[in-house]
Fold each of these.
Amino acid sequence: MIKIEVEHFTKDYGFGRGVFDISFQIHEGEVYGFLGPNGAGKSTTIRHLLGFSKPDKGHTRILGMETFTNYDKFMDKIGYLPGEIALPEGLTGYEFIEMIKELKRVKDDKYIKYLCDLFEVDPTGETKRMSLGMKRKLAIVAAFMNDPEILILDEPTSGLDLKMQQVFIDFIKEEKERGKTILLSSHIFSEVDATCDRIAIIKEGKIVAEFYATDLKHSKNKKYEVEFSSLDDLHVFRNLYEKSGKFTIINQEDNHLLININDENINYLIKALSHVHFRSFSQLKETLEDYFMKYYKEDRDFGGAIQWKKS
Amino acid sequence: MEKVIEIKDVTKDFGNGRGIFDIDLSIYKGEMLGFIGPNGAGKTTTIRTIMGFIKPDKGSITVKGMDAWKDSARIKQFVGYVPGEIGFPDYKSGTDFLKAIAEFKGVKDLSYANYLIEKLQLDPSANLKRMSKGMKQKTAIVASLLADNDIIILDEPTTGLDPLMRVSFLDIIKAEKAKGKTIFMSSHVYEELEKTCDRVALINNGRIVDVVKLDDIKNRKVTDFKIEFTNQDDYLNFKRLNYQIIRDQETYNQVTITIEKDRIKMLFNDLTNYQVKFIAEIKYTLERHFNELIRRGEVI
């Protein structure tokens, strides 16, 4: 069952900024990762999904409802953790929690207490004086206190220390076990890697790749680097076995070969290599980061320079 | 080799087991030393002691032969430094702040600063107070490097940077290293240190528990392979051979073996007798190195 849906969604802010014709669907119980650098359009998409703004073109739907016109109907079913936390001033942490509790009509304190304990929230003291990490943890409690079925998380762990990042990752996994549908926008590879079922890479407002996380982790396509004992060995290997078509050679440097092969042909490669002399055999693994970087070659620049004018 | 920074037997005890204890660490000229450990382990305290913000209870720290505490004002002039938590002085814009730093360090030519600004895609004209975390971090990086100092000390410099900016930053640091600079960088991202450092020190509970050369990690004589067989017979027969099995997953017909790299050829000769489903290398990494130290109980 589809819980979150974005269909041909465009929001053009001009100057090439914005989001252009993106589509994706998130099914019940799925964790969907939205991976991209700052300014790629992650938060824009999320803010439209929450109904804060109206798409120029296309649709953003939650639970089948168009979000801009129906936000009052689904707001109590989603927990939203914004990328930058701004808490109301002049309140203590307790008062803030009470305020949200009333807004969300949460009757039971049990889950709030569970969240406060889990994330080690200390709600005493004014929100204004809290550290960045404490503010974020307070926002976590506020977003999830009504145990919503859909979680929308925008850079959720920025400002949390390593230990709390791990607590948060474990929390996401538990929520997934409980059948929650989760959209996680992030540029921290390790947390996307650890939690997401599917991942979209977003670049300059467009989705440039979408894939299952397991396909990357347990890819049947492997790259190996073989160092032959001599150039002669390398040539013998190439002459005898390359034309089989069971593997492809990506690169040759001196007596090193970079080979791409599918697991189903690995026995052929093992046999072939057993007939020649080689010094080393190692695997080159493609991480989520490597995969991401393939789509991102630096090609934009902006920003200014300092002029040295004495005042 | 010349020791640019020398930390000898330094203790700073904050009580309740917090602080740093008996730290001995030298950073040699032209070297890049990484510094890793959990939050609260003492990374920032060690760095702040080098910068002369904290006076050690005992022991001595010298930077280019000068005492880190007594000569701290002078040392700050010739060391590029990115602090762990950034609190900028009250300047209107990033540009004003960077100009003040340039003046303090006696820099007349801002072309290197401008190069860094471009490389990090920073708009320094923005209001310092309103900058996002990432922009503040970039401003601090530019401030630390604009004087082209020979010694660079970086306390978690990549926090708050997105992945593209992290790559740009690491490129800058690699270029600094290539110029022969002495660099000390803390991080909680193993891969970052793996890509840049000559050596990495691990700190835990205020004590240095290991200092490892990355060459030793990369050029080990042994490696691990995970091999899955297509059928159980082959899996069982392979297990009878004389390989050192470090992990055995019967349900998948899978073994992980440790093998000297010069015996891989022999392994392949043996494997021709079996049906292999896949073979994957389990790399020995910095992270694994430290985790195994901790697991073996060599780290308190």
Amino acid sequence: MRFVDEYRAPELARRLRDELAALVVPGEEIRLMEVCGGHTHTIYRHGLTDLVPPEIEFLHGPGCPVCVIPMGRVDDAIWLAEQPGVLFTTFGDMLRVPGRRGSLLEAKARGADVRMVYSPRDALELARRNPEREVVFFAVGFETTSPSTAVTILEAEAAGVENFSVFCNHVTIAPPLRAILETGGVRIDGFVAPGHVSAVAGTRPYDFIAEEFRRPVVVSAFEPVDILESVRMLVRQLHEGRCEVENQYTRVVQRDGNRHAIDAMARVFELRDSFEWRGLGEIRRSAFRLRDELAAFDAEQRFSLPGLRVPDRKACQCGQVLVGAIKPFECKVFGTACTPERPLGTCMVSSEGACAAYYAYGRGKVAAS
Amino acid sequence: MKFDDELITLAHGAGGKASRRLVEGLFVPELGNPLLAPLADAALVDVAAARLALTTDSYVVRPRFFPGGDIGELAVNGTVNDLAVSGARPLALTAGFVLEEGLPVDELRLVVRSIADAAARAGVVVAAGDTKVVERGAADGLYISTAGIGIVPEGVLLGPERARPGDRVLVSGTIADHGMAVLVARGELALEADVRSDTAPVHELAAALLELGSAVRFLRDPTRGGLATTLNELAGSGRVAVRLDEASLPIRPQVAAACEILGIDPLYVANEGKLVAVVAGDAAEDALAALRRLPLGADAALVGRIEAEPAGLVLLETGLGGSRIVDMLVGDPLPRIC
């Protein structure tokens, strides 16, 4: 497969592995946070923890869009899906995320009309084809997915579609990183920053990490060779005492991001004063809502949502996993009360969630070590 | 195994853990008997001098017609394959139809014709049948349930418990064709790809392997849940480890690309015309040659080996030299957000 195989080439990976092994000083400890769930997935799926020297430790960050949605918002989504006449659409990952009364998948089994879509535009198409139904799209994700939601809303507005709305849970990546750094408590030596988010937002949002918090950042693509190269770039920065925002994903990411996508987002969204993040609590100006002039497309305005805040389950330690404070297998309920089949916490749901990735790909090593 | 779910959800039909719990926690306790208990692809019935293999399966695929096949062909091949991988020579099938009121007769005729063609290709007869019609809305057009019976030649002994460290794992051809063909044919993904179902009878492939005698330990057709699920069942029941070599897995480039785009792991995608074999290490090359001599086995490959530890797990050596677990599928393979 062209444009994929090159970045999974074994000989390249071996070369990077050897270079990394030669680069690290025996006994030093380098703790790198990969912010994005896509990176976590790659690291486990391709067994990269076997390829980097033992001196390097990966901490899994808050960049899994499914994992950061709090229980109350899932409950609201299920409430919406169960309203008469509603056709509720969602990305596949969100179907199994548990709220207080189960998941969307279980709501579907109880009779709610919940459909999986690959894109918000599929949801808009459903609205056009089912004019008698109220079609609601469960919008989640970082800057990776928010432009497509924005463009879809603009399209709906232009076409005068009246039965389409969006339950907006879009979040933005920099505020939780700042929250983690300000809270302290977890030693993080450098960041592998998310590639696809940066394709939209550019690399400037991470400047504060280098300037204020003196930590190196490398924006990374998602294939195994990319991640190994990003790790090498971070180790070099650390050894040379540099704290810069570097870009490994030059084939896609530009310093200023994607102007069209940013413009579309600016026309549709504005920052909320505050938004609750699962495990991290309320973070100021960390999420988007629809602008008032687009209220007709805002499910939060079209329906009177219960909007209750639901505390995370006590046994669930997703919050600590999301900030890198504990490893998934250190959670009290990992693999026992909480499994991918019956998740207690969101990190166990999406294949990008650190717990699910660990459970699916890494357990053998935990058992063996 | 306990089954205390309140409602049937899509996950119970996906071939993963929930499906297994449903079978082992609900059906087996209710229907259990020594013939059903091994939960093999076919029950083996000793009748006088002959051993019979008996199996049943239901077909609810949507869409009913897809590139490479249709529900009728699937209903024959699926059941023939369950017999074949049990070591049996397929003899006869039964077919039950649940039809939705309003189904066009022309469409039914096409399906039945396809059943006849597939049965002829597999050398079986449809020996009995049944039809029910349900009200509009109570079924999705047409469901088919087939049962099959076959004779197991003397001396054939297959089972996961016969797998030994040092044995090798083969697949008879490319993986993930059927599942991806159906997914693309549903037309919900705005994705066009030249992907065709592999639906085909594997009885000749199985027969070719069985000529190697007791060197053949285990055969299975990796349908719903894909190769990963079949190998997990092997590792669990056989109390062995299966170590796969990612680079040697045969997969068509267009299937690999479709999986990549949709974020789906081809190891979990259904096949309908392939078999997985475990054979003794010293017979592996002969087995591979035997498969490759047949048109349906042209892409056969050695993909892994049986080891003693860690028992019960399937491990994959990635193309990069790392390794990871290949777990059972949980629910349907849900595409990732980004």
